[in-house]
Structures are given as structure tokens and as C-alpha cells.
Known about the structure:
The chain is α/β, with parallel strands linked by helices. The chain has one domain (5-157, 195-339). The chain has 13 helices and 14 strands. It has helices spanning 13-27, 32-35, 58-67, 85-92, 104-118, 123-134, 173-179, 203-208, 224-228, 233-240, 260-266, 273-277, 322-339, and strands at residues 5-10, 38-43, 49-51, 54-56, 148-153, 160-165, 170-172, 186-192, 212-215, 244-247, 250-251, 254-255, 286-290, 311-315. The strands form 4 sheets. A 7-stranded parallel beta sheet has the order 5-2-1-9-10-13-14. A 3-stranded antiparallel beta sheet has the order 7-6-8. Helix 3 runs parallel beside helix 6 (123-134) and helix 5 (104-118) packs across helix 6 (123-134). Ligand FO1 binds next to helix 3 and helix 7. Ligand FO1 binds at residues 11-12, 47, 56, 58-59, 61-62, 77-78, 100-102, 106, 174, 177-178.
Amino acid sequence: xxxxxxxxxxxxxxxxxxxxxxxxxxxxxxxxxxxxxxxxxxxxxxxxxxxxxxxxxxxxxxxxxxxxxxxxxxxxxxxxxxxxxxxxxxxxxxxxxxxxxxxxxxxxxxxxxxxxxxxxxxxxxxxxxxxxxxxxxxxxxxxxxxxxxxxxxxxxxxxxxxxxxxxxxxxxxxxxxxxxxxxxxxxxxxxxxxxxxxxxxxxxxxxxxxxxxxxxxxxxxxxxxxxxxxxxxxxxxxxxxxxxxxxxxxxxxxxxxxxxxxxxxxxxxxxxxxxxxxxxxxxxxxxxxxxxxxxxxxxxxxxxxxxxxxxxxxxxxxxxxxxxxxxxxxxxxxxxxxxxxxxx
Length: 344
Ligand code: FO1
């Protein structure tokens, strides 16, 4: 097999750490086809927002900074070695939300992105330009003949996730997520603009033609769900022939990070590995569940899966170290390549 083509649909922190693990797995592989693999990450933009006149794209930045080695590791977003002089100046003017902090280094990215957008560059062109710095030549910090990665926004059109709250209000996702910490129950989500959004250039081909499509343990509702909601994306996976392997973000009824459980209950889905699998049942060839927490599911089939597809495999899902993330990503890739492409 020539260079392996891998596509992944990613959200924020979980997706970024999984992708970092995947690239580490590929770079260390004894298989030259994996070592020179090409990875395309199709990233959620529903979390995007405009603040202080600047366009902020949290999930794209989390993936870019994580793969580029600059992310604030504990936070999972923003830059390490960050300072907050500008945001404190803005607060002194009493302007802009005090609950959303834009670090000084991070602001450099938002200023440059907004300048490029104003000059007419589409978001996908902006991402490509920013990645020239963080992922030169698509190479994460590995040997020059190592795996390459490119980031694609799910769409160049603005899509924003708005959250309907139990108290009747509707707020932008960031306000629910950051200011309210999801403390007010959500009754649903609307991805404003998604129906008119077109997949960004390259997205459908990357999903149709891949040797493997991976769904990392990102938020299944507001991250992966939002990307799957862009017209054409789900069909590209369903009809394209690429094997699809997903990784459960829920281990034994608990989410590892973030507040996916608050999102799942908002749409009436059980916070369980099989509950989440049900959101992708029509797409999955294999669903990875945690061998410790959900080992009993090993060898079963995802309810609602297509005939002969949707098998459940138990693997260690906790990405508790870079090596654990690499092993998990390797297990997902192994499962996809073992399935192989379907005749499309
Ligand atoms: N998350 C927070 O909890 N508090 C913040 O002040 C905050 C600021 C922020 C700035 C830029 C950025 O790209 C992300 C930021 N995030 C912050 C994280 C963000 O809310 C999440 O990364 C995603 O939207 C959820 O995946």
C-alpha cells in the first residue's frame, strides 16, 4: 500500500490529543506506508465566535497549537507561557466579556486571522497560512520523512452553535460552556448557518477517499455532531467507501473531560459508550470502548449498525500519557485498515 491516507473529524482537546497520538504512532511505525502517512483533520468550527472584533476559532486553534507543540497542556486550549496584559487592559475599559480570556500570544493569532479574513481569504486559506508557522510542510516535529498533517475547517462559511437553555434563554456555545460552565441545563442546540454551509475545499474528498476515517473522542454533540451536520459530510462517509472507526468519549457512563454529558442529556441521549455510538450507528465499522470500564461490550455490535458493520472492540481508551494516546490511535487505525475500504 502507498502512503496511508487517514482522515479524522476533530473537535477540541480530545481530538487534538488523539491526533497528536496518531502522528506519534505513525512516526514510530515500522511500516513505511504508515510512517509517510498523510493525515487530514476536519475540524469543528461551530465553537467559533467574534470578540473585540476578532474572529476566534477555538477548536482549530487547539488542534494547531497542540500539534505545533505550543498548547497550554493543562488547559488544553490557548498558548503555554501566556500573559494577559491586553485582556486586562480591555477589562480596564470595561469592554468585552470578562469570562473569556484572550492571552497576549493567542491574540497574535486572532489579529492575524481577522486581518486575513478581512482581506478576503477564506477560513481554509487562513488555516493553511497559520499552519505554515505551526506545522511547516505539514510535518509535526518529527523526522522530515515523517507523517504529514493538514487541518481543514469543516466549512469556510460561518456556523455558530447556539444553546437553548432550560430557563428559556438562547446563548452562544462559548457563553454556556465558559461563563455558565453548562450549569444551566440545555434543552437543545442550533448550529446557526449550518444548513447553508458548504464543506470547505478538500473536506469531502478527504472523507470519501481515505484508507481510514477516525472519529476521535471529541464531543459527539457539539463537535463531531456539528461537523457531521454540514450538508454532504455524512453522505461522504456513508457512501464514500472509507472504513470508519470511532472512539467512545464515555467510559463506563462517565465522560473523561469536558461536559459531553451535559450535551448528551440535552438531546436525550444516554451518557454511555453505546449511547454515543448510536449517534454514528449508520457510519461505524468499528466502535472502540474502554476495556476496563466497558469490556463486557467487547465483540458486540452497535445497535442500528449497517449489516456486517458496527463491531465493538474493547481497548484502553484513557489517553493518560502521550504513549497511551499513540497506542489508542494505533488501535483505531489497525481496526480501520483491517476492515479495508468498501466497494463504493
Ligand atoms: N475556555 C475557558 O474555559 N475559559 C476561557 O477563558 C477560554 C478562552 C479561550 C480563548 C481562545 C480559545 O481558542 C479557547 C478558549 N477557551 C476558553 C476554550 C474554549 O471554550 C474551548 O476550547 C472550546 O470552545 C470547547 O472545545
